[in-house]
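### Sample
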Amino acid sequence: MVLDFNEKEKYSVFTGLRHIISDSTMRVQAERGVMAFPDPSMKVRYVVEKSSDGPVYFYSPNHAPDAVMKVKEPRALTWKISDEKRNLMGYNTQKATTTFAGRQWIAWFTAEIPISDGPYKFHGLPGLILEVSDHTNTHRFSIVSIQKNKSHYLVLNDPTYKVAKSMTLEEYEKISQESPLERFKKKAFT
């Protein structure tokens, strides 16, 4: 996974590294007139886009039979910051908790990196979230490396994202529960 934060624009993109590499490879091949297919080993195909002063967007996979769906996240994160502290990756971190998507979450953030961002849809603390997990520890994101780069991944530059269909979370959840065959039938017979 990669959290690519553009400090100048206060904007981030979160997705799988294999997704970034596959999209880049396919774009280069397309420019050469060669049709390429996505890396079949990709486990994460979605993208989460955040800006510090704007909404959070979830983009469905761009290598699917359906058009990319752009879903605005309506659920706000309300954090409770505790006094509990620990060291992660050499950074002093502080514990914060929230409820999101029906789960209790524990985050460890560091004010030493004053970026109010983190993995997946998590953000809004006074420092970078280095680790976040649900209370059962079945869902966990841990930052394992931090690099300062001058260039950024161009994930959302793929044409499939430029024509993404905007929808509400409720609409997306309804569509997501349908089978691909049901969605195909709706398209073919309407």
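The chain is about 20% helix and 35% strand. This sample (GLPGLI family protein) is used throughout the tutorial notebook.
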